[in-house]
Amino acid sequence: MTSDTPELEALFDSIAYAPEPEPAAPEPSSGDTPDLEALFDSIAQAMTEGGEDGAGAAGAEKVFARLGQMTRGLHDLLRELGLDQTIAKFANELPDNRDRLNYIAAMTAQAAEKTLNAAEAAKPIQEVISREAGDLAGKWDRMLAKQLGVAEFKDLVRDTHRYLHAVPDQSEAVNAKLMEIIMAQDFQDLTGQVIKKVLDAAQKLEKQLVALLIETTPEDKRSAVRPDLLEGPVINAAGRSDVVTSQEQVDELLESLGF
User: Fold this and answer.
1) Where is region (Disordered) located (predicted)?
2) How do residues 73-90 score in pLDDT, each as one tens digit?
């Protein structure tokens, strides 16, 4: 028996028999990149702090800064892809980097079409050579087995003579088609498809980021930006000079906003 008071005994008993807390379940992984996670956190914080003027403004500034950094990173990536030295020699005349990637996609599709057309043209020629060679081989086997008459033997000699004279021309035609296939391999069909898909996705994302960046631009920064650049990208910008339509204008917009 202990000398503790009833109050201490009750305290010790409550601690000893208290249920153990269940371990916290791990938070599910979203699979987002650190930049996206930081952007989402900034947006959530800005929404939470929206009731307080000072804190809400600070949260909006964080969202704006994160959007600007992401837009600048994507924009620079598009530029690096367009300036790759291995493709620049094929498209030096193109002024816009994204046009260079579009040029590669178009040339890749053209190369694939040339390859298929050349193969389809060479196949019948090769089939004729193979079929006639097989026919002549069978007749010569019969001749060696002494199964041909004089008339048949004369026909065999004439057919063989004609075949031997035709083969060089047919072989030259096949070689020409093979050369077309070899020359067309500067660009690969699958590579062109991947480039086009990546390009389309990157361009759409860049337009969305630019539009969102413009919408979240603080009032104190709008005065430093040309008004026409604040119009953002549009679906059909042909013939318009009051919207963001080129890499140079996106550059100018990002630089004027401090990115």
Assistant:
1) 15-36
2) 766 666 665 534 434 444
Residue 109 maps to a domain: yes
Work out the mean pLDDT of the chain and round it to a whole number: 68
Give, in degrees to the nearest 5, the angle at Cα 83 between 79 and 85. 155
d(CA 100, CA 90): 9
Residue 45 within any structural domain of the chain: no
| H or E segment and range at residue 88 | helix 85-88
For residues 250 and 76, is the Cβ–Cβ distance under 8 A?
no
Structural domain range at position 242: 55-256
Exposed, middle or buried by CB within 10 Å (0-12, 13-18, 19+), for 101?
buried
Whether 237 is covered by a domain: the verdict is: yes
Contact (Cβ atoms closer than 8 angstroms) between residue 99 and residue 137: no
Per the structure, the count of domains in the chain is 1
* 148 phi/psi in degrees, rounded to 5: -110, 145
